[in-house]
Write a structure and sequence with these properties.
By secondary structure, the protein is mainly alpha-helical. Helix content is 49%, strand content 6%. InterPro entries: RNaseH_sf.
C-alpha cells in the first residue's frame, strides 16, 4: 500500500507501506514522523506545534473529521482521481514507479480546489446536525 498526504503546496512524497499493513498511528509515528524528529518522545508535542507555527492554515487533529470521506479532501478529490488514473492496484516495481510519477505530476489546482471546498462541506454537515450529506463534486 502507498500512503500520501496533501497540503496547499502539493502532495507529499508517497510512503510505501509493506505487505498488507495499514497505516496505523503507530506505523505513521515509526515510519513517517520519527525519521523527521530524532527524539520519539518529542513527536507528539513538536510536530503539531511546528505545523501551527509554520503553516497558519494547518488543521489540528481535533478538527479532523473522523471517517467522513465527504469531508476529507484526500478522500473526496485526490483518491478518486488516483484510482481512475492508475486503474488497479500496483503490485510490482513498474506499478509503484507509475504511482510515484502520477503523484509527482498531480495537478496542484485540484489539491487546492479540494482544500478550499472543505469549509463548505463541513458547513453542509453542520446544517444537517452531523447527519451524512451527499455532496456533488
Amino acid at each position: 500500500m502507498v500512503a500520501i498526504g496533501i497540503c496547499w503546496n502539493g502532495m507529499s512524497k508517497p510512503y510505501l507501506v509493506g505487505g498488507n499493513a495499514k497505516v496505523t498511528a503507530q506505523y505513521f509515528i515509526n515510519n513517517v514522523l520519527s525519521p523527521m524528529v530524532d527524539a520519539k518522545s518529542q513527536v507528539a508535542i513538536l510536530t503539531p506545534n511546528w505545523m501551527e507555527e509554520n503553516h497558519p492554515n494547518y488543521i489540528p487533529e481535533y478538527h479532523w473529521m473522523a471517517k467522513s470521506p465527504d469531508l476529507a479532501p484526500l478522500d473526496y478529490a485526490v483518491n478518486e482521481i488516483l484510482k481512475k488514473t492508475l486503474g488497479r492496484r500496483m503490485i510490482n516495481i513498474a506499478g509503484l514507479s507509475k504511482v510515484l510519477k502520477v503523484c509527482e505530476n498531480f495537478d496542484l489546482r485540484v489539491i487546492r480546489k479540494s482544500l478550499l471546498s472543505r469549509e463548505g462541506r463541513v458547513q453542509k454537515m453542520l446544517d444537517t446536525k452531523g447527519n451524512q450529506v451527499e455532496i456533488d463534486g
